[in-house]
Design brief:
Length: about 120
């Protein structure tokens, strides 16, 4: 199993799709990495030699692609900055509501969480 950027990528998949298991690398970026490293995108990970795996690692650093922890840190810092300056998106993050203009009357259960019925209470 090839280990790139601290992630064990799947052996039986083609290299372009296996690279997508690394946080921060999508299919387009994976194709760019394969072109830079001069690796055929149809090649399976189990068929790669150690030299080719090393060339993929070198390609990621040469193309200056932020992956895994570095990418997650940058995203969380961007959210923290927006919360601190108090912009609209920061307020939405702070309240746990959708940020990008989605409707909230009926949907957005993922951000809002489980429904909590307020109700009228007990009659006395």
């Amino acid at each position: 199993m090839a280990r790139i950027a601290g992630i064990d990528i799947p052996r039986d998949k083609k290299i372009a799709y296996s690279l997508c298991y690394i946080h921060g690398i999508g299919l387009t970026t994976a194709n760019r990495i394969c072109e830079y490293a001069k690796i055929d995108m149809e090649t399976r990970v189990k068929d790669l030699s150690d030299n080719k795996v090393a060339s993929i690692r070198d390609a990621i650093t040469a193309l200056e692609i932020k992956v895994e922890g570095e990418n997650r840190t940058q995203a969380s810092m961007n959210i923290k900055r927006k919360r601190d300056i108090g912009c609209y998106q920061g307020l939405r993050h702070r309240r746990g509501l959708p940020v990008n203009g989605q409707r909230t009357k009926t949907n957005s259960r993922t951000r809002k969480g489980k429904r909590r019925t307020i109700g009228l209470g007990k009659k006395v």
